[in-house]
Known about the structure:
Strand content of chain B: 25-35%
Helix content of chain B: 10-25%
Number of strands of chain A: 0
CATH topology of chain A: Globin-like
Number of strands of chain B: 17
Largest interface: A-B, 19 and 16 residues
Oligomer: heterodimer
Order of helices and strands of chain A: HHHHHHHH
CATH superfamily of the largest domain in chain B: Nucleotide-binding domain of ferredoxin-NADP reductase (FNR) module
Structural class of chain B: alpha/beta
Amino acid sequence: xxxxxxxxxxxxxxxQLGGEAAVDAAVDIFYRKVLSDYRINRFFxxxxxxxxxxxxxxxxxxxxxxPNNYNGTDMRNAHAHLxxxxxxxxxxxxxxxxxxxxxxELNVPxxxxxxxxxxxxxxxxxxxxK
Amino acid sequence: MQRITIGESTFSCQxxxxxxxxxLRENIxxxxxxxxxxxxxxxxxxxxxxxxxxxxxGLKDTLQKxxxxxxxxxxxxxxxxxxxxxxQGASIEARVVSKQLLxxxxxxxxxxxxxxxxxxxxxxxxxxxxxxxxxxxxxxNIPLAKNILEFHIRRLPNGQFSSWVYDEVxxxxxxxxxxxxGACHYLPGRAEQPLMLVGTGSGLAPLYGIIxxxxxxxxxxxxxxxxxxxxxxxxxxxxxxxxxxxxxDNFHYTPCLSGEDIDSEYLRGRADDLALSSTETLSGWxxxxxxxxxxxxxxxxxxxxxxxxINDIYTDAFHVFxxxx
Lengths: 130, 325
């Protein structure tokens, strides 16, 4: 039907990825990968896992092209104490790795993974305070 | 225009304003951070109507059920009476109707109240004695026709409140009780889900309530309880639990002792280690952890890494009140 074709062609990345349900499915997988990665887990304070998971969810929602209030200045401020702890490009790369692996695990097609990765990549300067 | 009532004051919410914006504009101190529903610092509770579901995104299901919401996401759909999480409503009076030793270290206290009082088994209340000394204890029973609350109180070395309960409290003693608080309780809806409950010492109190609640609501999935202590004096309700396990096919009970010289009828080791290694995966499980704060921090992470979803892990850490010297 022409109508459904039209819908498919105008779907946003977020819709194509499966919206909030997809983010929910991704959060636990992604957070587990991050916590078990010795290269970066010291940056993820796990004293309050719920709050930490809420932040991961916000990050993934943004990377999925979903509704967000992304603000470069906030992102800088939020990560400034981590930069002081030594957060650098290699750690950002590790997170990007886990984002890709999470989406692969969820059987997301490569072209959509690439789009999500590009969005996440766009935060690099702000996260690293460059 | 919607009206927001907090404490004694009522304010009007301007069009498009969130509850947080209204309160801050009126110089009400509300903790807040990101203002986009992520940091959850501006958590509040609606005392009358259900808050809009869009303002409850990301909160635990038990908190949603108790009408918690994020003020920064809340565009009120009707008038609301709200409170900050630390803002206590009215307390009620209760009197002691039973006091009984459950083990050398743990006493069971049963209070009866008259005023209407609502709670979930597993939540906690602040018990306040007449001179004002106050401590938090978990509720071990489910709401019944009789207006009673059951507590299991462990005697702490130099514990002012627990020693008082042990040595002095007599029948008919009066205590006041705060509103029930806490998000560690059972919710019906996923009856077939396997449950894993781990408690140390009097951490059995909330778990006992949660188990009774789950069974009363026909939970059909397996329910595994691991209760641990260092020595036998910290274990209690052993016969009651065994009886319950005999009565309900889906309830399984494992008492654990982590100290030396353990009788062979108990599993040897820490309850959290034994519980979490008893199953290959915790994917799809609901996990309840109550008792020692260190145990909970460790076990929470382990349970998550073993596959439990973060939203399916409920905890109640028993922090020991430190007396300032």
